Amino acid sequence: MKKITIGQMARLNNISEQTLRYYDKIRLLVPDTVNRENGYRYYSIEQSAYLDMIQYMKALGMELKDIQKYLEVRDPSLIQSVLKQRRSQIDAQIRELRYQKRAIDRTLKNLQHYQTSPPDSTIVLEYIEERYMYCIDTKMNFYDHGVEVYEEMLRKLKADLTTNKLPQIYFCNAGTILRKRHLEQRRIFSSEIFVFVDKDFVSDEFITVIPANTYLCIYCDQFEKEKEYINRLLLTIEQEGYLIDGDYICEVLTELPYLERNKRGMFLRLQIPIKFCS
User: Fold this and answer.
1) Helix ranges restricted to H, the chain
2) pLDDT tens column, 76-106
3) What is the pTM of this model?
4) Rounded (10°) CA dihedral 203, 205, 208, 209
5) Which residues in the chain come in under a pLDDT of 70?
6) DSSP secondary structure letters along 39-103
7) Which domains are assigned to the chain?
């Protein structure tokens, strides 16, 4: 039987000599013969079939230790078990990639919105489509304290996402809600924090639906201005004869790619759903 060198074996099978040496080292695929005088390794062409099996199982995502075990025991049930486990891992990876892709799409959309938004303090009427949010009540009024408490609220939100096994990719651009009853009383109170989520990725039990509506919005580049800007929205609603038609939302359009004195850089769209008097 013709013997071929390690270099020839590598070229014939489109594999590196280094990989063949490693397979020899771990006893996964050893040369057919080794010259004791010079240490040269020689393979038989028939060993290519064995190498084909190894490469195929690697392509399926199997680890070398599992391939080696299967080739030693030759038990089909073993490879079935390994491949079922690998399939479950792939399914989980696909879900994670879908989450990431949707998050990238959402971030790109928000960045585009930020780049084309009107400047700080601009008030506009906007129609906003139906949205879905994951919301928790932290029992702390954000407006009594400011950004420090907002950071504490974020920790609670992050922990809650983990508890409910929701993708951490949603832990981004968290906003706050001021309920309609407080708005109507001109009481600036919010203990609820939220993130927008995707309806097809998150169970309905965790979703709060924000209906499509016309919103009176004001754009804001600093948290410290928010209370003043809420009052400006309320004054405009009163002057224009609009009716408050739902909860106030502080939406973080984007977290800017810099930190100023360790504080988050954010651009906000403050919004109150309204309806027109007939």
Assistant:
1) 6-12, 17-25, 47-59, 64-73, 76-116, 147-163, 180-184, 226-240
2) 888 888 889 889 999 989 988 988 898 888 8
3) 0.72
4) 70
5) 1, 256-264
6) --EEEETTHHHHHHHHHHHHHTT--HHHHHHHHHH--HHHHHHHHHHHHHHHHHHHHHHHHHHHH
7) 3-74 (1.10.1660.10), 101-276 (3.20.80.10)
